[in-house]
Amino acid sequence: MSVIDDIKEAEKKAEQIRLEAKQQAKEIIREAKQEAEEYREDRIESTNKTNLDKLKEEEQKQNELLQMRLKESKDHDERLIENNKEHLSEAVQYIIEKVKSI
Questions:
Q1: How does DSSP classify residue 1?
Q2: How far lies 46's CA from each of 32, 40, 42, 49, 88, in Å?
Q3: pLDDT tens per residue, the chain (102 residues)?
Q4: Could you give the angle at the alpha carbon of 99 between the alpha carbons of 96 and 102, nearest 5°?
Q5: Measured between alpha carbons, how far apart are the two ends of the chain, in Å?
Q6: Would the CA dihedral through 56, 60, 66, 69 be positive or negative?
Q7: How far is the C-alpha of 76 from the C-alpha of 79, rounded, in Å?
Q8: Any long-range contacts for 13-21 (C-beta under 8 Å, 24+ apart)?
Q9: What is the DSSP code string of 11-60?
Q10: CA-to-CA distance for 87 and 42, rounded, in angstroms?
Q11: I want to staple 5 with a disulfide (CB 3.0 to 4.6 A). Which of 1, 47, 78, 101 is the partner?
């Protein structure tokens, strides 16, 4: 084999090595993109779950607050009714006396 043949053979091997390196680089990039996409999807899913959990927690807190305020309002209304019942007979008596005086 001559030097020229050796050079041609070396050039062929170099070209083959470049092509293999290029293919390996493409594969590494593809895998990295896939891993990044999977990581992004996992983060989105995790964030969505966290947000949903927080939303449910806040809804529960709001529901508890609403129930507490409804109970307070009911208790207040019941006190007003009881107070008015105590004075009902006095009010009726007052009205009867006013009607009689007319």
A1: -
A2: 21, 10, 6, 5, 62
A3: 688 888 999 999 999 999 999 999 999 999 999 999 999 999 999 999 999 999 999 999 999 999 999 999 999 999 999 888 888 888 888 888 888 887
A4: 150
A5: 142
A6: negative
A7: 5
A8: none
A9: HHHHHHHHHHHHHHHHHHHHHHHHHHHHHHHHHHHHHHHHHHHHHHHHHH
A10: 67
A11: 1
**What length does the chain have?**
102
User: Interior CA angle at 48 toward 42 and 54, to 5°?
Assistant: 135
- How far apart CA 53 and CA 26 sit, in angstroms, is 40
Task: Report which secondary-structure segment, H or E, holds 69.
Answer: helix 3-101
Separation of alpha carbons 11 and 32, rounded Å: 31
Structure tokens at 88: 């009902």
